[in-house]
Amino acid sequence: MDSITQAALGASVAAVVAGRHCKPKTLLVGAALGTLPDLDVFISYGDPISDTVKHRGFSHSLFVLLSFSLLLTALWSRFRLNVLSFNRLWLLIAACLLTHPLLDSFTTYGTQLFWPLDVSVAISSIFIIDPLYTLPLLVMLIASLLWQEKMAKLCGVGLLISSCYLVWSIAAYSIINQRVHDEVKNTPLVNKPIFISPTPFNTVLWRIIILDGNKYYEGFSSLLDSKKYGEYPIQWAQRERGSWPLEQTSVHVDDLKKFSNNYIQYKIIDDQLVVTDLRLGLIEYLPFRFVVAKRTSQKDWQLIPPVRIEERKVKPKHLPALWLRLLGNQDVNADLCHINECPLVTTSQS
């Protein structure tokens, strides 16, 4: 999740654990601890693909954070006087640190909760920024600063509301998942890999991807859609997924395939091979796109160090269509799924 959300979550958790001992500085400590795991973004792993797949790694490991919380508690207790007992202080620090990766695991990106074990958790029930999750935390934090005698209780209310919304996101995911399986039943797409994720800032409109060899299908389903003939039909747009054209393999691409569970697109643009993680983003706004090879002749390719492609700016014409589709208007599917190619622009190589 975004840094504001993680800071608000950390501050709220700290307030609840501190209880009657909570003070404004407790909220600051909790906010700092809540954002601490994301400092790994400042670590360079040598290339943009490695930076992508190794983010939310060791710094988001429950094993690492538990150990670090004990160390931090011991240091804090030694050099500062505290009204909290050692156990309560450790619980506060550990809770602020651990809730960060646990919340991240509900997003699409994936979180290595059990690093160094090679396991990534991505429930994909909430978008990386969702105001309906964050606002209750922020509102109650502000209220707690105004009524400091009720600081812990107010923050607890914010946590309860946001947690209920998180549970709701799982329920919404389950509803859409059932719709998709009902839709593809008795079709050639049955048993094909299916990926479902919420669209930006909500848990009402969901994006669906189904892989089918060198093609993939993209569709949208809203919880506000109306039934037609007893079902919730999904209109699909067929896309070209492409295939790997080189004889030699690429370690970087293999890492990206594993990171994305093989939801990868291969595309040739301006004699350059672009690989894209199809899970993150929507329509033509797919931010994780990398140039990994260039064509040297009609049939020959040369691997190059990965270069990340600059993200496309959202076109205003798509925003009304996205909103109308969220409200259940399926007539805008054609506009929503339209893709316009734009020139290849790469960012500076890491």
Automatic annotation (TrEMBL):
Q: Where are the transmembrane segments?
A: 58-77, 89-109, 121-147, 154-176
A GO MF annotation of the entry reads: hydrolase activity
Which keywords annotate this record? Hydrolase, Membrane, Transmembrane, Transmembrane helix
PANTHER family assigned: HYPOTHETICAL MEMBRANE SPANNING PROTEIN, MEMBRANE-BOUND METAL-DEPENDENT HYDROLASE
Protein name in UniProt = Metal-dependent hydrolase
Q: Which organism is it from?
A: Photobacterium angustum
